[in-house]
């Protein structure tokens, strides 16, 4: 049996010899090799620890039973306790090393493992020396049978730790030989001696095979790593290089490719500290990147490393390098330095950063996007419970931005959004993160709220900043902002609930006219739920015949005779009762139900108008969504054809909002309706984004004066009087009629008549009435003629 196992490991000409003493923890190996070897030795030695424990306990029980009648009880108890104690040490070592996956194993643990095996061998030698004296032959044979089984088990399971197997076999085997020579005869003792030696030789041979397998695996791993590094250098298409250092971490045998990458001469780099070269200008300041600290630790511990990403300053430009290396040793195991590869990955790094930028930031404004804001808000809400503080979220929606986008185009709209983003940055402090959610919606995450009133102050500052005039190209633009806010934890403990709460508050601010801040209150969730249930009920209202029409008279201002009716839709729900239009019409518009409801109103009203005199007209409100539908013209034609109503008796009322979306074909559709003979009325003129251009684009027959101006005239407000006079004069010059809405008193009627209004409608002349009551306003003969 040899005592030295030599395995050649080609490490660029170096060779390492793994001796039997090294396997027994005597040292003499490189640090990294020793750590891998001892970890593997103890891992394999502990694989059958459960089986060895069971065998030892059974053997202890067997020996106690074998000598129970011939030995004092106290002696057996003392021996049993000592034998069990020798089992605890290996178990403790196994648990401690397994907890670190044997990463901290060293030759000290290998020697400790051998010592534990020696103590266990001494414990089992005791019965053969002390208890077998004057023992019966059956006791001697039984004791030897159990100890020989244990020697065989340890020789097999401790093949990776020859120190442990040798210690146990020699101590127990030697005691067995002594017992046989004393109690039986020298011949049998010789047989026992041969058996013990065979076990010892077999154990050491298994240790030799273990060493060969280990070194072969280690050699293959190193060769694979070297091949991988060389292949990597070739795959980098000139962007990579080999580098190596001496034992003092100085660069040596510098390659021209490394010098070119550093934009320096080989002579400038040769012999310089690798850390100094990689640190660049930071070497003098000491402000090293964390990656350089990691590299220094790896070099100090002489550990292999891969894929360390280093920022390198080269002639004032920051580059990113990826470096990997392994330690080098000579044939005696003496550390020589490191050899590795490096590559310039600046392009890949910048590409990855760009991708991360695109994933978390809005391209137009360069503000954090919805994903980034949600992540930041999640971190803020998590810190609320940890640090017992408040955080907040502001939802910002731009008022009147849509009209800018639709009338001036998306290019102007995008420039306006960029200016809004710049103003938000100035308003927000370093503790606040402003971002763009999408479209014309922005948001602000408040990591910490110093004062309960701070949210209100910040919201008002945002509204004031956003509402100042903008200069985009040659346009001076005016928009506003509606802000909703929510605060954690009272308004929501997660990012999702806080965003929803702020969103509900923002919509309440818009519902109240915009340009305001509204803080979340719990009732907003109830309102949102009510709207949701209302939408569900509204979707079935037509099919369930819950909608009906009422008709409000339109009279001639001079004769006070009825010249027409405006058809108005009403909803009666079987459980909710009468639901006012002011409540369900906005829901219908948001749910995209307004078009189907509007078309139903048109068909039903045209059919009803056939019961009126032939000179009485029908006015029907048409939503912008209906006019954006290219099939709406066919809907009007079918409604007129099926009812038999003359086109000039139908007057469609549209609002100015229809002109705010260019490219929808709405203006062309209005022209086709006019060509069909249908009359058009411009509703709510003067209350929105009024422009004389609307009147020049389309030939309207009527301009309707809003109820707000009618009340202003009655209150003798100068601006209302001036607006009504201007509208009437303009209508006359364009050969149009005017209709005043919401006339409720005789005073209003007389004033508007004096100002020159052609037609009027309102409670003063009649409330909206059912169809049967509208028919009753006319003599039966006139109605009969109508339906005839």
Explain the overall architecture.
The chain is α/β, with parallel strands linked by helices and about 800 residues long. About 55% of the residues lie in helices and about 20% in strands. Strand 10 (about 470) and strand 11 (about 475) form a beta hairpin. It is elongated.
Spans of at least 5 consecutive residues with low confidence: 1-15, 231-237, 784-788
- Strand segment count: 22
How are the strands of the largest sheet arranged?
Answer: 14-15-17-18-19-20-21-22
Largest sheet: 8 strands, mixed, barrel
Structural class of the secondary elements? alpha/beta
Q: Whole-number average pLDDT?
A: 83
Rg (CA only): 47 Å
Number of helices: 31
Overall spatial form? elongated
The amount of helix comes to: 40-55%
End-to-end separation in angstroms reads 127 Å
How much of the sequence lies in strands comes to 15-25%
Give the key terms.
about 800 residues, alpha/beta, eight-stranded mixed β-barrel, disordered N terminus
Task: Report a brief summary of the structure.
With 788 residues, the protein is α/β, with parallel strands linked by helices.
Could you outline the blueprint of secondary structure elements for this entry?
Blueprint: E1 4-11, E2 14-19, H1 20-23, H2 31-45, H3 49-66, H4 73-99, H5 107-131, H6 137-157, H7 162-183, H8 186-235, E3 240-244, H9 256-262, H10 266-269, H11 274-279, H12 282-285, H13 290-301, E4 305-314, E5 317-329, E6 335-344, H14 346-360, H15 370-387, E7 391-399, H16 401-408, H17 410-427, E8 432-438, E9 441-446, H18 454-466, E10 470-472, E11 475-477, E12 480-488, H19 495-511, E13 517-519, H20 523-539, E14 547-556, E15 562-573, E16 577-579, H21 581-590, H22 594-609, E17 617-621, H23 624-627, H24 632-643, E18 650-655, H25 666-676, E19 679-685, H26 692-697, E20 702-705, H27 707-714, H28 718-733, E21 737-740, H29 746-755, E22 759-760, H30 771-775, H31 780-787
Parallel strand pairs: 12-13, 15-17, 17-18, 18-19, 19-20, 20-21, 21-22
Antiparallel strand pairs: 1-2, 3-6, 4-5, 5-6, 7-9, 7-12, 8-9, 10-11, 14-15, 14-22, 15-16
Helix pairs in contact: 2-5, 3-4, 3-6, 4-5, 5-7, 6-7, 6-8, 7-8, 16-17, 17-18, 22-24, 27-28, 27-29
């Amino acid at each position: 049996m040899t005592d030295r196992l030599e395995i050649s490991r080609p490490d660029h000409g170096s060779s390492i010899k793994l001796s039997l003493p090294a396997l027994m923890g005597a040292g003499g190996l490189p640090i990294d090799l020793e750590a891998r070897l001892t970890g593997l030795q103890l891992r394999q030695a502990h694989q059958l620890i459960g089986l060895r424990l069971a065998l030892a306990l059974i053997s202890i029980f067997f020996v106690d039973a074998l000598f129970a009648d011939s030995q004092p009880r106290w002696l057996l108890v003392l021996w049993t306790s000592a034998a069990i104690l020798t089992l605890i040490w290996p178990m403790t070592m196994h648990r401690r090393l397994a907890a670190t996956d044997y990463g901290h194993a060293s030759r000290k643990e290998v020697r400790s493992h051998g010592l534990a095996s020696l103590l266990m061998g001494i414990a089992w030698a005791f019965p053969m020396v002390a208890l077998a004296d004057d023992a019966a032959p059956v006791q001697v044979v039984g004791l030897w049978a159990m100890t020989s089984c244990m020697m065989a088990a340890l020789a097999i399971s401790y093949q990776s730790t020859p120190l442990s197997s040798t210690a146990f076999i020699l101590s127990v085997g030697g005691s067995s030989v002594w017992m046989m020579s004393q109690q039986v005869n020298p011949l049998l003792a010789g047989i026992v001696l041969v058996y013990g030696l065979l076990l010892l030789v077999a154990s050491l041979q298994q240790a030799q095979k273990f060493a060969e397998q280990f070194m072969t695996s280690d050699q293959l791993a190193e060769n694979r790593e070297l091949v991988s590094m060389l292949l990597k250098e070739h795959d980098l298409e000139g962007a990579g290089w080999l580098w190596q250092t001496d034992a003092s971490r100085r660069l040596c045998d510098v390659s021209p490719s490394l010098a070119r990458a550093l934009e320096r001469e080989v002579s400038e780099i040769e012999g310089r500290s690798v850390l100094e070269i990689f640190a660049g200008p930071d070497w003098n300041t000491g402000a090293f990147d964390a990656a350089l600290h990691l590299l220094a630790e790896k070099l100090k511990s002489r550990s292999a490393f891969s894929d360390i990403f280093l920022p390198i300053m080269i002639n004032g430009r920051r580059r990113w390098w990826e470096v990997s290396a392994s330690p080098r040793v000579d044939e005696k195991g003496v550390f020589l330095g490191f050899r590795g590869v490096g590559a310039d990955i600046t392009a890949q790094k910048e590409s990855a950063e760009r991708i991360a930028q695109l994933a978390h930031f809005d391209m137009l404004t360069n503000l954090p996007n919805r994903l980034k804001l949600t992540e930041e808000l999640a971190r803020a809400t998590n810190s609320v419970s940890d640090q017992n503080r408040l955080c907040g979220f502001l939802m910002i929606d731009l008022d009147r931005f849509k009209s800018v986008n639709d009338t001036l185009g998306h290019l102007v709209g995008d420039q306006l959004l960029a200016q809004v983003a710049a103003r938000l940055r100035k308003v927000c402090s370093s503790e606040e993160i402003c971002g763009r959610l999408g479209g014309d919606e922005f948001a602000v995450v408040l990591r910490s709220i110093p004062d309960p009133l701070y949210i209100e102050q910040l919201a008002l500052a945002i509204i004031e900043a956003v509402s100042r005039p903008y200069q985009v190209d040659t346009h001076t633009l005016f928009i506003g902002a509606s802000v909703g806010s929510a605060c954690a934890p009272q308004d929501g403990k997660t990012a999702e609930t806080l965003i929803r709460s702020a969103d509900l508050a923002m919509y309440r601010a818009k519902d109240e006219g915009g340009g305001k801040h509204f803080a979340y209150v719990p009732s907003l969730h109830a309102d949102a739920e009510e709207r949701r249930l209302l939408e569900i009920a509204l979707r079935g209202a037509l099919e369930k015949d819950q909608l009906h029409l009422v008709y409000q008279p339109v009279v001639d201002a001079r004769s006070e005779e009825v010249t027409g009716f405006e058809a108005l839709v009403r909803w009666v729900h079987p459980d909710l009762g009468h639901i006012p239009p002011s409540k369900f019409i906005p829901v219908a518009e948001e749910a995209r139900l307004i078009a189907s409801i509007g078309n139903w109103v048109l068909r039903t009203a045209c059919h009803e108008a056939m019961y009126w005199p032939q000179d009485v007209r029908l006015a029907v409100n048409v939503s912008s969504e209906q006019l954006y539908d290219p099939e709406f013209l066919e809907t009007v034609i079918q409604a007129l054809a099926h009812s038999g109503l003359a086109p000039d008796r139908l007057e469609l009322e549209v609002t100015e909002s229809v002109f705010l979306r260019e490219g929808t074909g709405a203006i062309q559709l209005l022209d086709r309706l006019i060509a069909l003979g249908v009359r058009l009325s411009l509703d709510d003129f003067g209350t929105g984004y009024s422009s004389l251009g609307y009147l020049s684009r389309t030939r309207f027959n009527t301009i309707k004066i809003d109820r707000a101006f009618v009340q202003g005239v009655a209150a003798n407000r100068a601006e209302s009087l001036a607006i009504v006079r201007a509208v009437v004069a303009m209508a006359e010059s364009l050969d149009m009629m005017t209709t005043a809405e919401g006339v409720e008193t005789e005073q209003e009627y007389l004033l508007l008549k004096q100002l020159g209004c052609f037609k009027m409608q309102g409670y003063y002349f009649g409330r909206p009435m059912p169809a049967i009551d509208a028919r009753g306003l006319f003599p039966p003969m006139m109605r009969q003629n109508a339906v005839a």
